[in-house]
Amino acid sequence: MxxxxxxxxxxxxxxxxxxxxxxxxxxVWNSSTGQLLHDLVGHADEVFVLETHPFDSRIMLSxxxxxxxxxxxxxxxxxxxxxFNMIEGQGHGAVFDxxxxxxxQHFACTDSHxxxxxxxxxxxxPYEKIPDQMFxxxxxxxxxxxxxxYVLDEQTQQAPHLMPPPxxxxxxxxxxxxxxxxxxxGRENCADEHLIxxxxxxxxSDGEVVEQVIGQQTVDQDEQGLEPSILDGMIRQLQLQQDxxxxxxxxxxxxxxxxxEGTPRRG
Length: 267
Hints:
This protein is mainly β. Helix content is 13%, strand content 33%. The protein has 2 domains: 5-128, YVTN repeat-like/Quinoprotein amine dehydrogenase (Methylamine Dehydrogenase, Chain H); 135-216, no CATH class.
């Protein structure tokens, strides 16, 4: 195998350079002389994450597709801490990115399974107010392109960034309770009836009746011409209200002074 460098990072004071090689080794070099100082052994797959500590020049963090996260003392060439990202029932999750906090007391990683991993000192209680699984219900909605090649949401025909705030759901698409929905910016003051999950019963293709959150209808339901979901209806209604407000603002602006003496005020 021909060696290839996959990632490179300088330490905090620029005295050392660390390179990740596709033979799974990390190499520590003297940045002034180019001398190889240490081979860091521990990874079992390619490494694409190298992060230096924000103020401790000895510390370097590495993470890779093998699910391993290491904290190294690069001056000694030793391993200080190790974490393996094992996911129950799914094997390990490759670690794709990692960053230290400015104070150096915490770091956060993201993996191939959509997890955000937060490491640090102290108590984890502040993080317990949010659910384990958080997705927006629009994350996997189909997109289309218009005649100008701009991207639009297929259902509302709106640019995704102009759509109303989405709902928070779990990995299966089930909406979270009201207290979590209000964590979404723009939904802090929504009425309860717009945030409470709706349950219903649907028949699968083999005739089995299962409980399902209304709003997560399947392709089969679309083909059978069943009623649109409650969630989709809410999104359509919110989009309509937003369009009406935008139209009213534009009409107000166009009816304002035309001689440049002033600008119309929004209601």
